[in-house]
Amino acid sequence: MLATGPISLPQALLRPLNAATCDLLRVNGDLGINFFEPKGDAALILHDSISWRIFKNPLALFVGGIAAVLLELAEPRVRTGVWEHSHFRSQPLVRMRRTGLAALTTVYAARCVSEKAIARIVRLHETIEGQMPSGRQYSANDPELLTWVHATATFSFFHAYSRYVHAQSNLHFDSFCREGLPVAALYGAVQAPASEFEMEVLFASARDNLEPSLIVFEFLEIMKTTAILPSVLRPLQRTLVRAAIDILPQWVRQRLELHKGWNMRRGEVALVKHIGKLADRVLIRSSPAVHACVRLGLPEDYLYRPVVMDPGVYQ
Fold it and tell me: What angle (nearest 5°) sits at the alpha carbon of residue 200, between those of residues 199 and 201?
């Protein structure tokens, strides 16, 4: 992976990006996590990891986040738990901010902060259980379902970055999987895949259990129509939804009945790649990635400096 150094944007573009990032850190008006403190404290994932490079990119997070939810909703027990015990329908922005903040916390927050945040989520999951119309039971703390949720996020964020920002190798994916294992263990995803091979095995084992649902299309409609991105970027939102579908395995698309109407249109892949590469070089000072670097005494632009990342280093 090659980072090419930061660039500056006109204030007319930079201001809404900083504002949108600040909004992500606030849920119901309250500041959720302080990534600046405690000074010097390391995160669960090391600062020289592939994860720190990938999660700093807002386009990869947006596209990868949508793809991850689509894969989650394909699993009927996860789908029922998410749709019946969350506010996706009534408060999609709040739900997305909570999810986005949780992901960024596990990567960038100090270990003591992220461990407490994860423990709160685990306790919340203890209250989420029920029975599907088929009679099958589900629980949010079921290790099998937690493993699926963790794996789908790992797959989606990595492939969004690799597809639209900087192409990555299989070895990079193996490293990315391993970096997330401590986080997976804290959530209870004790069988989280540690390599591309293990990810393929997990996906193959889940294949017969995934199914289409009207909820998938309801979610996609919410993603297309809710004002999520800053106004200057909002015309791109539908394109980015299609970009998320584009990184799903073809057999998953077929299973979810996401047919040709959801394909990327002429020129859209090139456009999204251009934006993804640009986003990778725009230093947003309000971002958790920058705050975390400052906490560790690193330069603000540490994650934007030219570096060739050797996957052999990340063991």
Answer: 90
Hey, what are 67's tokens? 């793809």
* pLDDT score of 308: 57
Dump pLDDT digits (tens) for 162-210: 999 999 999 999 999 999 999 999 999 999 999 999 999 999 999 999 9
Distance CA 197, CA 264 (A): 28
Q: Give 145's contacts (C-beta < 8 A, 6+ positions apart).
A: 75, 77, 78, 81, 138, 139
Closest CA to 108 of 276, 278, 282, 295: 295
pTM of the entire predicted model: 0.90
- Spell out the domain ranges in the chain: 2-129+138-313
Residue 96 tokens read as: 């997305």
272 φ/ψ angles, rounded to the nearest 5 degrees:
-65, -40
Q: Do 300 and 33 contact (CB within 8 A), yes or no?
A: no
- Residue pair 303/280 in contact (Cβ under 8 Å)? The answer is no
267 class by beta-carbon count within 10 Å (0-12 exposed, 13-18 middle, 19+ buried): exposed
Confidence check: pLDDT of 315 > 50: no
* 37, two tokens: 């403190």
Report how far apart the first and last C-alpha atoms of the chain are (Å, whole number): 16
Question: Running DSSP on this structure, what letter comes out for residue 212?
Answer: -
Q: Is residue 78 a contact partner of residue 149, using CB atoms and an 8 Å limit?
A: yes
Token readout for 97 is: 């901010």
Which pLDDT belongs to residue 90? Answer: 75
203-248 pLDDT per residue, tens: 999 999 999 999 999 999 999 998 887 777 788 999 999 999 999 9
Q: Are 211 and 132 in contact (CB under 8 A)?
A: no
Regarding beta strands 307-308 and 2-3, do their DSSP bridges make them parallel or antiparallel, or are they unpaired? Answer: antiparallel
